[in-house]
Write a structure and sequence with these properties.
The chain has about 220 residues and is mostly helical. Helix content is about 50%, strand content about 10%. A two-stranded antiparallel ribbon has the order 1-2.
Amino acid sequence: MERNNTIEQYRLGADLLESSSAERDLGVLMDDKLTMSQKCALAAKKANGILEFIKQSVASRSREILLPLYSSLVMAHLEYCVEFWAPHFKTDEEILERVQRRSTKMMKGLEHLSYEERLRELSFFSLKKRKLRVDLVNVYKYLKQGYQEDVARLFSVVPSDRTRGSGHKLKHRKFCLKMRKNVFPLGVIEDWSRLPRGVVVSPSLQMFITLLDTALCSLIEVNLL
């Protein structure tokens, strides 16, 4: 329906179709402004509900018990299809991150530590850093594993003869809509450019992931939240 068309109505058979400010597709709720605040709130609500159930039904507060439960039951709601609906606003990021903060604080021996300290104790990343990790791994796959048609469609690669870098330097494409800066091919460029050259030129995906995790560990969590 056109933006300024408030008169036209549509039918599906005999049924009149009502207008809606949000639609759900494959479990992802998206509003008419393409923002994901409703989806973030819904995901956090479901995750918090499961976390509360775990808290009430599991007597142990051992990290060996709670961490697998959190990873398999709670995180599934925080990260399902997150590549598509990743939050763009800090308030939405914090709504999701708060669930993980709460879950790590439930674990015995970690109650009095800061969130960043709890993550280090658990060898765990923040949700935002986990999302960043997935994005960077996908960039590596596109650039290094022969998806040439997808590379040309998604990214603008700086020719190797114009840079002293790895030959896989990405450049920004121009866009008119401010919202587009958050989509995967554009939003990941700066993070990819910050990676050390030794990580970018990794000869294999497994080596890249290993070096990437080391690089991500050096980032201060508070700067990502």
